[in-house]
Design brief:
Layout: H1 8-14, E1 19-23, H2 30-58, E2 70-75, H3 78-92, E3 99-103, H4 104-115, E4 127-128, H5 130-135, E5 142-143, H6 144-155, H7 158-167, E6 168-173, H8 181-189, E7 195-200, H9 208-211, H10 215-222, E8 228-232, H11 244-253, H12 260-267, E9 271-275, H13 282-294, E10 299-303, H14 306-318, E11 324-326, H15 329-346, H16 354-366, H17 374-380, H18 386-401, H19 411-419, H20 421-424, H21 431-448, H22 455-471, E12 481-485, E13 494-500, H23 517-525, E14 528-536, H24 545-551
Parallel strand pairs: 1-7, 1-8, 2-3, 2-6, 4-5, 6-7, 9-14, 10-12, 10-13, 11-12, 13-14
Helix pairs in contact: 1-2, 2-3, 4-6, 6-8, 11-12, 11-23, 15-16, 15-18, 15-21, 15-22, 16-17, 19-21, 21-22
Pfam families: AAA_19
Binding site for ATP: 24-31
Domain UvrD-like helicase ATP-binding: 3-241
């Protein structure tokens, strides 16, 4: 469908304000309109450059003109970046190569890789995940929390600052109300003279407690910047033009559960509740997902924790439902790291430790607080778990058997062994992220196997992709069913959404009227284009219980 800006959207596209704050609810077209504004900005910049070139030619001057401007679009999550890329192709058109979309941390990582080797960050650089920190024994690198400060340190250098100032004429930030003070300062350091388009919605500020931020304060401070202009988009949802689900979501956020909008959405079948009395609700979710897919719908499934997401993903995989697990970037990245260690073991190459790499992956799939989970501990010392030790020995034999005389591997066999390795050792959780990573490992093996096998090329490729996954650069294949932690829902949309709630879930210390938590209801309910389902246990947390009762 061709995008056509209307009303306030057109005002956004045509604005030349140095700082433009664009506010609007879920589905009001903020992202698409910002991309249209980026295209207009680039077209205008190209026209100015053409005029300068023509004037220089007519005057007989040889003038070194700047390179064509680019636009940087920053977001907070890999999932949102993927959505921006999907939505922008038709809008940005032939200028797509000049729109760079990145997360804050992936852009910081780009700065560090580009300029760090010359300014105190020697290669090879690596991203150290939280799982690596907990398991221990990692080599040198930067933790996730160190990336932005390191990039800011580099941006303070004149050479680095000038590079990005010349590169970008416009910086767009999605969900800017979610920036903490450090992220806000980082945003201002990138090409300070470039225009800013800042997209926001206070109703979607679901990280206020976690990040210690205040959306209203951030917006108010921004409006004090020189030349700042605010445009409020009308509340029409392009995701749900009927307005049924957005109206119900607004009422739920206000805790007005007797509002007609909620009754209307329920009676129209747009939002419903499914109970489960035993188990984890997986069977009920699978049933709803299968019915939605039979109708041709795309499906997004939300859970409250990463552990619940991994567990549900494994259940979907066992039932044969192809899906994409969204948001577990650490698990995906460390799966690639573990698989690289397996490749090195198969080829009898030096490696710091296969068992440690597997333990790190196990830890990344669990993410249970600040402790090493039992299975990861057992991976480090298999003698404490005899079945695991035997399974690891079988895996070791299979890996070595996949390599022939002269160290030339049977690529197909080695790929198969690595793909099935995690199930071979008897690990249950995390199958989908392991298989997802194994596809990339297989591709790297095939590329390196063209002619004489190049083990170094495999290592470089998987090392690069691992780091990109950890910082949010890599985007997964598009799948009709996606599973994610409900805090990863911003920027996502699907025909049908399914929220799986568990018993005894922790939503912080907040109580009624859940001023911050209720925004989560709004965000979750506005992801669906057609239908929103809640799958709930007997005991529902107080944040959700009044909504569940109203829908019944």
């Amino acid at each position: 469908m061709t995008y056509e800006a209307k009303g306030e959207q057109q005002a956004v596209v045509e604005s030349t304000a140095p700082v433009l704050v664009v506010l609007g609810g879920a589905g009001t077209g903020k992202t698409t309109t910002a991309v249209a504004a980026a295209r207009r900005h680039l077209e205008d910049a190209d026209e100015r450059l053409t005029l300068r070139r023509r004037a220089a030619h007519q005057a007989g001057r040889r003038t070194r003109l700047p390179a064509p401007e680019r636009v940087l679009f920053l977001s907070f999550s890999r999932t949102a970046v993927a959505q921006i890329i999907d939505r922008s192709s038709d809008v940005i058109g032939p200028l797509a190569s000049r729109l760079e979309v990145a997360t804050f941390h992936s852009f910081a990582w780009r700065i560090i890789n580009s300029f760090g080797p010359h300014h105190g960050y020697p290669q090879p650089l690596a991203v150290l995940s939280e799982a690596q920190r907990l398991v221990g024994g990692a080599g040198p690198g930067l933790t996730y929390s160190q990336l932005v400060p390191a990039a800011m340190e580099l941006l303070a250098l004149e050479k680095v600052r000038n590079h990005y100032s010349k590169r970008y004429g416009l910086i767009i930030c999605d969900e800017f109300q979610d920036t903490d003070d450090q992220e806000w300062q980082f945003l201002q350091q990138i090409a300070p003279a470039a225009r800013r388009i800042l997209l926001g919605d206070t109703k979607q500020c679901i990280y206020a407690g976690f990040k210690q931020i205040n959306a209203e304060t951030r917006i108010a401070e921004t409006m004090q910047m020189p030349g700042a202009v605010r445009i409020m988009l009308p509340p029409l949802s392009y995701r749900d033009p009927s307005g049924t689900l957005p109206a119900a979501a607004e009422a739920a956020m206000r805790r007005d559960f007797t509002h007609d909008a909620i009754r209307t959405a329920a009676s129209a079948g747009r939002i419903s509740v499914t109970d489960y009395a035993s188990g984890h609700g997986h069977a009920e979710v699978i049933g709803l997902a299968r019915r939605a897919r039979k109708a041709g719908d795309t499906v997004s499934i939300f859970t409250h924790t990463n552990v619940a997401t991994s567990s549900l993903s494994d259940a979907l995989l066992a039932d044969g439902l192809v899906h994409e697990q969204v948001g577990l970037t650490e698990a995906h990245g460390e799966a690639l790291g573990a698989q690289l260690s397996l490749v090195k073991y198969a080829l009898d190459l030096p490696d710091p430790g296969v068992l440690r790499a597997l333990a790190v992956y196990v830890q990344a799939t669990e993410r249970k607080g600040n402790r090493v989970v039992p299975l990861a501990q057992q991976m480090l010392n298999p003698a404490t778990n005899l079945p695991l030790r035997n399974a690891l020995q079988r895996l070791a034999r299979d890996l070595r058997a996949s390599v022939g005389e002269g160290g030339q591997p049977d690529i197909a066999r080695l790929s198969e062994v690595i793909t099935s390795a995690y199930s071979t050792v008897g690990a249950a959780r995390g199958q989908e992220t392991w298989i997802q990573a194994a596809r990339q490992t297989s591709i790297a093996l095939r590329h390196a196997g063209q002619g004489s096998f190049d083990a170094a090329a495999v290592g470089q490729e998987l090392f690069r992709v691992r780091d990109e996954a950890l910082v949010g650069t890599w985007t997964a294949r598009r799948a009709p069913i996606q599973v994610m932690n409900l805090h990863q829902t911003k920027g996502r949309e699907a025909d049908t959404t399914i929220l799986l709630l568990g018993s005894n879930e922790f939503h912080g210390s907040e109580g009624e009227p859940y001023l911050t938590g209720s925004r989560l209801l709004y965000v979750v309910m506005t992801r669906a284009r057609q239908k929103a389902h809640l799958v709930v246990p007997n005991l529902v947390h107080g944040l959700w219980q009044p909504l569940v009762a109203a829908l019944r």
